[in-house]
């Protein structure tokens, strides 16, 4: 298990805010006092949703991306950064080594600082706007990068993509982080350093929470209630764990409690001045009123109850059956009569009217009078021709038992309904009784009135023949009887001593009501105090959570496990490559109570010997470089590395070692080097060729009268090796070919002179780079005799080719003035093209001599 894996496994068991803080630290963010307070505030809120991949995504680069490397593709969209030109794009080859060359003041550092602000670096450099602009605009810039084959973008001014934390940057100041104020060169792997920094953040948050605990130690104002009382007991027992429903119960009140308090205050005042005898009579009167009300309800229940309804229904059914029988008899008897419906109620009404009229006009005769000479009392016509017989039949029908029975049953039903309709639902004595009870029991009248309304509805339904709604007042009657009995019992027991107890009870009830109202009105105060207690409880919990002991214990454990053994071995390997002799790591003392602080020191030197007194500036830089490469060793993602002028203060012997080491790294990951050193650029190119590592060129230049920050895809002429110069010559001649048409002779001549000058410089670069430089070992300042065989392989034809070409080129160059009589003509584009081919063929053939 690696140190990162060990840290991540352990930190994953810690609170989310420590995980988040560690992720921020790992991204290069500096967490200060203001951040401590923000982190402390977040502990009182619901934990935010973790970022995709979890809080530790930015520090679990290998695991989070399946060990996929992060590669930088470009920096673009730059605006208001130093004085860098806008609308430029600096690209990088995704594999191998990209060398970005720029002279001092070209804008190279501006681009490097943009990367430095987003990737992992031991220090941050401020990105300034153009200091010569009065009102610079908002800074912007984008870094595009690949994770596997997926392109991502991170913008300047926004939180850097956590994945960029896998990319590491080194510059000369990086080495300073390995030297403390006592000139001790210290090194700690970033995984252990993360926990050290996290311990500092945790301690800062702990200080903030401790201050908040002090602020929250004063209790809030609570409602004023009587003591002892249930309200006082509740307030004394209020804790952070008191639930909302418990507060709701303790502060709940009936909707009419304010009116009840007014009544209770009046009751207390009345009892203070009341006579026990009068009080006894009042109780008895109220009991009598309840008895009257209960009796009236029972009477209504009897008058309009189920039994009455059943009787009414029986009368209706009996009258209906009798009428149906009479109708049947009428139909049988008078079926052949001219008119129908004889015997019907209408017909009977007509017959009864006729009978009454007959008694007036024929007072001496029985009805119907049908003797000779009599006329029909209805139509005033003679009864001759069967009329008399018909009247007799009608009379016999009416006198028949069937018709009489129907009539009598109808009369009985009508009499019952009349009596039912006259039955009163309320009466004056009952209303007086209800009013008496209402005085001591508000709401009683409304409750009784609901029952009365129900009885009225039932009465109406029964009279109209509808089905009445079922109801029962048995429960209400029992309740009223119970209340009556209680009042009579109270009246029997009442005396002066009991009256005093009642006054005390009334006062207690008044206090209870006041407490209830105070609790209701003080609910916000109670909730505020509980909030304080909860915050104080959470503060205490979080204060314990911010104890740094666990972190510092882990720091000590990790340091012993990884730094003392593995890092010391890796650091020693790197320093050996840089020829830093007898330098190693030592564990010196504990840090923050548990961690081990290591420092670089001499191996087996005499006591008191200090590195700062012995090492040169270049050796100190080499130590910083070795420390950075040791960190890189622990990075399993093989993400990009960025070096910004890594050989400052290094002598020429160590530059080659650094170049070789950088190229070694470029063989396994993307490496970007920013430099202004031509010699170092050549060393990198040479090492890349030897190691067969892809080598890409980029340039940043300053344009006269405009400013810095213009990007190119190639190095400037002075920084190009022989092969690059041949390619540049081809591009120059191709450009001349495109522009030749329409050019004036002087312009064409000047163009050919410039190209010829570059050709002659290319010949000189070939001779120095391919033939001369291999003969000298600049590290040992000695001639490599074995390389003389390359000179021995150069043939007379090779020399003649060189002499002839160099002579022709020299004649075209601007440094030679053609004699006026020669009538000089500049070479054609094709001639220049041919000459470039001569250069290219000669260069390739000489390189073959080196490999044979």
UniProtKB/TrEMBL annotation:
Pfam families associated with the record: AAA_13
Domain of life: Bacteria
Every Protein CR006 P-loop domain range: 375-688
Protein name from the UniProt record: Protein CR006 P-loop domain-containing protein
């Amino acid at each position: 298990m690696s140190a990162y894996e060990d840290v991540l496994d352990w930190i994953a068991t810690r609170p989310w805010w420590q995980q988040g803080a560690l992720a921020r630290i790992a991204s290069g963010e500096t967490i200060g006092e203001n951040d401590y307070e923000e982190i402390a505030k977040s502990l009182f809120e619901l934990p935010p949703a973790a970022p995709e991949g979890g809080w530790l995504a930015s520090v679990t680069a290998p695991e989070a991306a399946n060990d996929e490397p992060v590669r930088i593709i470009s920096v673009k969209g730059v605006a208001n950064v130093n004085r860098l030109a806008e609308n430029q794009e600096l690209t990088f080859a995704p594999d191998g080594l990209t060398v970005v060359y720029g002279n001092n003041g070209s804008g190279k550092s501006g681009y490097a600082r943009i990367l430095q602000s987003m990737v992992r670096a031991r220090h941050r450099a401020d990105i300034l706007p153009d200091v010569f602009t009065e009102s610079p605009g908002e800074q912007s810039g984008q870094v595009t990068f690949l994770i596997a084959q997926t392109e991502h973008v991170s913008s300047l001014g926004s939180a850097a993509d956590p994945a960029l934390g896998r990319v590491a940057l080194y510059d000369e100041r990086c080495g300073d982080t390995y030297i403390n104020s006592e000139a001790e060169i210290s090194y700690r792997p970033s995984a252990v350093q993360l926990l050290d920094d996290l311990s500092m953040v945790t301690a800062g948050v702990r200080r903030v929470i401790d201050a908040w605990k002090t602020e929250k130690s004063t209790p809030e104002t609570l409602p004023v209630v009587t003591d002892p009382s249930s309200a006082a007991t509740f307030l004394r027992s209020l804790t952070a764990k008191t639930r909302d429903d418990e507060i709701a119960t303790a502060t709940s009140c009936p909707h009419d409690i304010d009116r009840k308090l007014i009544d209770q205050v009046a009751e207390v005042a009345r009892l203070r001045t009341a006579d026990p005898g009068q009080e006894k009579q009042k109780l008895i009167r109220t009991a009598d009123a309840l008895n009257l009300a209960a009796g009236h309800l029972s009477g209504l229940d009897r008058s309009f109850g189920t039994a009455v309804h059943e009787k009414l229904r029986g009368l209706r059914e009996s009258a209906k059956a009798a009428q149906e029988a009479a109708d049947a008899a009428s139909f049988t008897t008078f079926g052949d009569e001219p008119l129908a419906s004889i015997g019907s109620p209408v017909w009977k009404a007509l017959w009864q009217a006729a009978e009454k009229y007959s008694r007036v006009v024929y007072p001496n005769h029985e009805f119907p009078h049908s003797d000779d000479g009599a006329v029909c009392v209805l139509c005033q016509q003679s009864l001759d021709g069967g009329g008399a017989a018909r009247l007799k039949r009608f009379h016999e029908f009416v006198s028949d038992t069937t018709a009489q029975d129907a009539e009598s049953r109808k009369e009985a039903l009508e009499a019952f309904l009349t009596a039912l309709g006259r039955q009163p639902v309320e009466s004056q004595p009952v209303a007086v009784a209800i009013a008496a009870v209402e005085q001591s029991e508000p709401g009683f009248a409304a409750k009784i009135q609901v029952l009365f309304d129900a009885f009225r509805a039932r009465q109406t339904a029964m009279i109209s023949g509808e089905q009445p709604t079922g109801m029962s007042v048995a429960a209400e009657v029992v309740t009223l009887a119970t209340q009556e009995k209680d009042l009579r019992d109270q009246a029997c027991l009442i005396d002066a001593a009991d009256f005093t107890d009642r006054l005390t009870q009334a006062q207690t009830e008044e206090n209870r009501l006041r407490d209830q109202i105070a609790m209701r009105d003080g609910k916000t105060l109670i909730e505020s105090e509980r909030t304080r207690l909860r915050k104080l409880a959470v503060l205490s919990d979080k204060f314990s959570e911010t104890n740094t002991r666990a972190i510092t214990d882990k720091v000590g454990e990790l340091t012993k496990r990884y730094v003392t053994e593995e890092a010391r071995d890796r650091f020693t390997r790197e320093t050996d490559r840089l020829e830093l002799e007898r330098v190693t790591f030592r564990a010196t003392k504990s840090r923050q109570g548990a961690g081990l602080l290591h420092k670089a020191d001499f191996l087996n030197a005499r006591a008191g010997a200090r590195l700062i007194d012995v090492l040169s500036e270049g050796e100190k830089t080499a130590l910083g470089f070795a420390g950075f490469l040791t960190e890189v060793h622990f990075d399993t993602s093989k993400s990009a590395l960025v070096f910004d002028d890594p050989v400052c203060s290094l002598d020429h012997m160590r530059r080659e070692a650094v170049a070789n080491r950088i190229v070694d790294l470029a063989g396994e990951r993307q490496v970007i080097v920013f430099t202004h050193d031509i010699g170092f650029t050549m060393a990198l190119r040479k090492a890349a060729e030897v190691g067969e590592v892809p080598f890409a060129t980029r340039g940043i230049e300053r344009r006269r009268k405009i400013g810095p920050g213009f990007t190119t895809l190639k190095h400037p002429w002075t920084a190009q090796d022989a092969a690059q110069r041949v390619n540049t010559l081809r591009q120059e001649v191709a450009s001349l070919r495109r522009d030749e048409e329409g050019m004036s002779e002087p312009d064409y001549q000047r163009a050919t002179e410039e190209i010829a000058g570059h050709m002659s410089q290319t010949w000189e670069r070939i001779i120095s780079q391919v033939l001369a430089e291999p003969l000298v070992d600049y590290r040992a300042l000695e001639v490599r005799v074995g390389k003389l065989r390359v000179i021995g392989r150069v043939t007379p034809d090779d020399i003649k080719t060189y002499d002839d070409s160099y002579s022709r080129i020299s004649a075209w160059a601007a440094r030679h003035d053609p004699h006026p009589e020669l009538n000089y003509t500049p070479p054609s584009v094709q001639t220049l093209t041919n000459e470039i081919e001569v250069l290219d063929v000669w260069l390739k053939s000489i390189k073959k001599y080196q490999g044979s």
